């Protein structure tokens, strides 16, 4: 009767250790990729909020400069190097009261997927609607949408 060789046992133990360490490494890489995507999405959402805020201020400033202002599609050229689509749509409509205007602002950002680890482009959108009157009082309502 022959007993099992110690060389074979060591080989099996080494293969099991290699399998376990490879599995742990793959899990760590996956976790890092998920965290990177989440961080990128948070960054894009924050940038969209900043773009929305800038567009709201732009609309108020334009209304102060010209009461005939009825809106525009503003392309934030400062952001287009990083975000292929960086725009805010501003729509100004008169309300039933002749002194009031309803202002609706929608900010959109879209990131191109130039990264081989991110197969899809991501888009974010934020909207804000408020009433602007001749007095400095503002009434507002917010809605948000993310794709």
UniProtKB/TrEMBL annotation:
Residues 119-134 have a biased composition (Polar residues). Residues 1-27 form the signal peptide. The keyword Signal applies. Keywords: Signal. Residues 114-147 are annotated as: Disordered. This is Uncharacterized protein. It comes from Novipirellula artificiosorum.
């Amino acid at each position: 009767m022959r007993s099992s060789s110690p060389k074979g046992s060591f080989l099996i133990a080494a293969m099991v250790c290699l399998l376990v360490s490879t599995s742990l490494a793959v899990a760590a890489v996956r976790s890092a990729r998920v965290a990177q995507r989440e961080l990128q999405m948070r960054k894009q959402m924050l940038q969209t909020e900043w773009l929305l805020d800038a567009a709201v201020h732009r609309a108020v400033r334009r209304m102060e400069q010209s009461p005939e202002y009825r809106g525009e599609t503003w392309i934030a050229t400062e952001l287009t190097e990083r975000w292929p689509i960086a725009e805010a749509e501003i729509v100004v409509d008169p309300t039933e009261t002749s002194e009031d205007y309803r202002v609706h602002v929608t900010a959109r950002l879209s990131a191109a997927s130039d990264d081989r680890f991110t197969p899809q482009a991501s888009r974010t959108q934020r909207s804000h609607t408020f009433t602007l009157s001749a007095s400095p009082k503002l009434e507002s309502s917010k809605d948000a949408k993310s794709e």
